[in-house]
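User: structure tokens for this one?
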Amino acid sequence: MSDSSPLPGDPTLAADPSRDIADVPAVEIINTVSVHLLSAAAVKCGLSENGEAERDLAEARKLITALAGLITAAAPELGDHHARVLRDGLRSVQLAFREASPFPDAPGQGPGEKYTGAVS
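Assistant:
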């Protein structure tokens, strides 16, 4: 990126708008994007204050699959400390999706499970 604009909605960058994206470590960017995907997936699974009104399992499936792919691909670069926390959050939304679904997927067929394996 040639400009010094922070990523949209990034609280770490919003605190210091003069911080150039070139100065942000990759691990921090990956964690920030993962947290945004995780939060959006939780809302779409109905885990927000408005619960059922915001539930959209088709959208949650997309978000969870994207999150699983990102975490799986980035884990070797993130190291165990960062990857473990993200994997725990991913597993939580995968389980929330399964619980929210009126017709749960077969084991190994749920969102993101092609990257993570079956979640139970």
